[in-house]
Amino acid sequence: MQKKILGNSYVLLIMVLLYIPIIFLVAYSFNSGTIMSGWSGFSFIHYQQLFADTRLLKILLDTFILAISSATIAAFIGTIGALFLDSFHNKKNLNVFSSLNNVLLVSPDVTIGVSFLILFTILGFSLGFVSVLISHIAFSIPIVLLMVLPRLREMDNTLIIAARDLGANRGTILSQIVIPEIWPSIMAGFLLALTYSLDDFAVTFFVTGNGFSTLSVEIYSRARQGVSLEINALSALMFAVSLLLVLAYYLYTTYSDKKARLTK
């Protein structure tokens, strides 16, 4: 009982430490003052300034387009990669490829960013949206693989064997049995890749150029001149979007699990 209380207290403490800065940031986005050192009164002035800042809104739109594009492509390629690895009957080969995938996951972002910068420089590739997109796809694929491959390994092959006995071809088995079974993992990988892309700074900092910028790079540039509460307002909106995405994914997984139980 005492261990349970200590465990719950520890988790609560961690959650408080994580969320207090976010609450502080959101609260001061409604401050009528210009700095975060004192409360001057409730106001929406910083949200008005945010929606009047066309440059920041364009960068925000570009960031979401980049994140959605890279996450979608990474989810597609990562799923194909997971299906390919799952076809390995040799456990040693599977372990080798899985280890290589894990190395990419734990590699420092700075190392990945510098590597891509060197690659693009050698190839004479112009830095901009495409270079950032390629880099984001590259570091997102291992995330999708990590989410999808375990689900494939846990699949019950009974349905696949039965489908083959009934004359189903590979395309039918893939579209009607395999994909629906691993779809929650694909969505989880997509959302994780989307999150990583949205908040990435190190990799993007090295491979961006030609007037293209993302939100993290722009905030860093503005922070060197002093962060305004307009950034607080933007961060509050992005936090709200993140909460909606988490809620949507929770509702989707709950519905999928409930539907799976009913079909069984």
TrEMBL record:
Keyword Ribonucleoprotein set for record: no
PROSITE patterns reported for this sequence: ABC_TM1
GO biological process: transmembrane transport
InterPro entries: Bact_Polyamine_Transport (IPR051789), MetI-like (IPR000515), MetI-like_sf (IPR035906)
SUPFAM superfamilies in the cross-refs: MetI-like (SSF161098)
Membrane topology listed for this record: Multi-pass membrane protein
A Gene Ontology term for the protein's cellular component: plasma membrane
TM spans (from-to): 12-30, 64-85, 106-127, 133-152, 173-195, 233-252
Record domain ABC transmembrane type-1: where: 60-249
Keyword terms of this UniProt record: Cell membrane, Membrane, Transmembrane, Transmembrane helix, Transport
Translocase as UniProt keyword: no
Compartment list: Cell membrane
CDD domains attached to this UniProt entry: TM_PBP2 (cd06261)
PANTHER family reported in the protein's UniProt record: PUTRESCINE TRANSPORT SYSTEM PERMEASE PROTEIN POTI
Record family assignment: Belongs to the binding-protein-dependent transport system permease family. CysTW subfamily.
Protein name (database record): ABC transporter permease
Source organism of this protein record: Periweissella fabalis
Taxonomy of the source species: Bacteria, Bacillati, Bacillota, Bacilli, Lactobacillales
